[in-house]
Each structure stands twice: as C-alpha cells, then as structure tokens.
Amino acid sequence: MERYLAACRTQVQRAAEDLPPVTSVFVGGGTPSRVPPDLLVSLLRTVPVLDGAEVTIECNPDDVTQDLLDTYRAGGATRVSFGVQSMVPATLGALGRSHRPENVELAVAAARSADLACNVDLIYGTVGESLDDWQTTLSSVLALRPDHVSAYALTVEAGTPLADDPARHPDDDDQADKYLVADARLTAAGLNWYEISNWARPGHECRHNQLYWSQGEYLGVGASAHSHRRGRRWWNLRTPERYIAAVEDGRSVEAAGEELAPPDRVLEGDQLSLRTRAGAPVTAFDAAALDELAGLVQLEDDRVRLTLEGRLLANEVAVRLRVP
After folding, report:
1. Separation of CA 267 from chain center
2. Which residues contact 104 (CB under 8 A, 6 or more apart)?
3. Backbone torsions φ then ψ of 189, nearest 5 degrees
4. Among candidates 75, 1, 7, which has minimal Cα distance to 42?
5. pTM (predicted TM-score)
6. What are 197-244's pLDDT values in tens digits?
C-alpha cells in the first residue's frame, strides 16, 4: 500500500503544474477505507483543490470508525459514500458482501459526527431479493436520512462469477418494479432524482459525477484510472505492479487513449445529458423520433427530458438521438 500510494502522490505532483483548478475529488475504484487513513490523507493533501471543493471517499461500512472519518475530515474530505447495497442479510450474502446492516447505522452516525455529507449506494435486482426485501432496504436507509442515495440495477459483467451463472442473472421486469418503488419512496422522503440512478436532497447532488455527465475534464490517478482533457481520453496501466513500476522509473503511466471526432463528442454529450434531469436539447432529436417517443419523454424549455417510464427505457430513447 505504501508504494502504491507513493506512486499516486507522484503522479499528482507531476501533473499539478498542468492541472486546471480542481473542483472535486473522488477516491474510489475499490475499497479505499482499507488503506490506513493517514496514508490516504497524505495523497489527498497533494491535490491542489479550490476552496469549497467536494472531496468524496468510498467506504465499506465494516471499516468505519469515528477516528477514521475524523481523520478524513481533517484531511480535507467533505463527503463519504458507503457501499451498502442492501440492508437484508440474505441479499448481502448473495452479493458476496460481508457487512452487517447495523454497521451501516453506525457508519452513518459517525459521518454525521465528523460533519461529512453522506451517500448510500444500493443495488437492486439480486436473484432471491423479493419486493418486500427491497422495501425493507429502502425503509432502513431512509430512516438514516442520508443526503444522497445511488440505486443501481444489478448488471452482469463478462468474466465475473455472476456472468457464468445464468440462474443468478437479474430479471428486467423485477428490476423495473423495484426502480419504480425506489423513485416513489426516495422522492417522498425529499430526495429528488437528478440522474437515472441518483437521488439527492437539494444542494447535495454529487458534483464530481455531474462533471462526468457534462463531459468535464478530470485526471485519473492510480491503476486503470481514466482521464479526460481537451477532448482526449486515456487510461492508466491496469495492474498496480505495472503502474508502480512506471512511476518509479519515470515513465508514462498511460496504457492507451482515444480522441473522439467532433460529431461523436456531440452524440456522446447528448447521451449523457439525456440521463439527467436537465435532459438533451430538442435539436438532438428529429420530429419523427419525438413522435415515436410519446410517453417516454417530455418537451420543456427546448429540452427533451425523460419521463418516469422513459427512465426505465432510457437506452431505447438514446438510440433515437440524431447522429450529428
């Protein structure tokens, strides 16, 4: 861990002179809370952030102590994101998660004590998870009054144990039912949707994720991290060992990159924006396409926004975007 974090610090320091003002930081891509907090904070302190920047650290609820979160806060963190997934033990077991639901309650209380904004990540659609189980998860999480909730449909990624076991693959209709329940419950509790899988209390939308959805610029630090600058995207070496070796040898950590042609960038921007409450510009659709999408979108102030039903079929809407 020491060598890896040292390599990350070096990457930041080498990039610092060419960095624009840093408005947000998100420490994720694994389980950062397994790293000794002083070591993690030493990385945060190398990042030249603007006053008022949003700094988020992902945490496993089982790792959380008051000292851990107090150290994060003293080191510049403003927000924590807890990988909760479910508050039902059987569902957690099916997902391969080890934490106990009561640890989530303790973790959120510790975040409050440390004056950190709090996000809770949830996953729905696990085989064996009933609608009552999902209601239990939502009720338990809402009782904690989080500032932000991310609720993602379980997806099957190639090369994972889930992909190799079709009996465990999620059901689309089940996931749609659970999404509708989540939206109703979260909205009633004062958390408003601002991206298909994200709800927040006013003023607590995740600024870092909004940067991604608006095609902003960002620097990816660490193994496999992705970056975007001046219309070009690139990604770092995949394994920690190769990444560390490249930094220590003074070599580039870039594995590969790409630059989208202007029409492709416009289309990608419309696709990303369509996922958000802001919607896509009306010029991104032909009139005939808008007629076909009746009930899935609504037109307001020259923007095309997804309806609740449209959010369930967002990909179907997106493929009807006009190709520049």
Report:
1. 22
2. 61, 82, 84, 87, 120, 140, 141, 144
3. -85, 5
4. 75
5. 0.96
6. 999 999 999 999 999 999 999 999 999 999 999 889 999 999 999 999
What is the structure's pLDDT at 17?
85
Domain with CATH 3.80.30.20 in the chain: 21-212
Residue with the two structure tokens 């449909």? 153
Q: Could you tell me if 33 and 59 are in contact, meaning their C-beta atoms sit under 8 angstroms apart?
A: yes
Beta bridge partners of 82: 59, 120
In this structure, what are the phi and psi dihedrals at residue 157, rounded to the nearest 5 degrees?
-105, 135
CA dist., res. 175 & res. 95, Å (int): 16
Round to whole Å and give the CA distance between 273 and 233. Answer: 18
The CATH number that domain 21-212 falls under is 3.80.30.20
Token pair of 122 as six digits: 């949830």
CA distance 241 to 229: 25
Which residue type, as a one-letter code, is found at position 223? A
